[in-house]
Amino acid sequence: MTRINVTVDGVSYSDEVEPRTLLVQYLRETLGKTGTVIGCDTSNCGACTVHLDGTSVKSCNVLAVQADGHDVSTIEGLATEGQLHPMQQAFHECHALQCGYCTPGMIMQACDLLKENPDPSEQEIREGLEGNLCRCTGYHNIVKAVQQAASAMREDAQAPAGSAVPAGGPEAPEPVPAGVGAAGPDIPPGAGGRVGDGSSGGPSGDLSSGSSSEGARA
Q: Which domains, and CATH codes, for the chain?
């Protein structure tokens, strides 16, 4: 057994694996990242495509030990704060799937394509996805989805930035007047009404699966 340390979808894991374990097997069987599917097991279909240090790879063709010390991104890490990635949204809106089995790998490869070429032609999209096979759609709607996502991502990149922070950082809060606590005005006994406790809302949602790896249990 060999211990590997790897970051998957922003979460660090440390696990012992057999040297022959494929990356796709590690993702699915150890981390529970079943969004990454096993298709042909021969690196032909591309259904298992993930990003390794930002570059698309077929995870049935990479050993888990080769990912030691590296960063892996899967289809399950694309959405942020409950919002679909523009590529995921475009595949949904363009109905760029039928059975959906090839879709995770197709989306991951398409994202890598747009990283290298933000404004590809139809031919460049078809060439960029030639290593990912779809046995259902005929590819037409997949190409449409990539074109739509490319347009949306270019618009996002060109959108004006938010309001600038004033020089010297954010303004300091005004001093609290005498007789006013953190929760509001001091109310004498019997005056009626309740003062809120000033607590904030619950913690924001965490999209990571919290997989039961040794790193998570440590």
A: 1-77 (3.10.20.30), 79-158 (1.10.150.120)
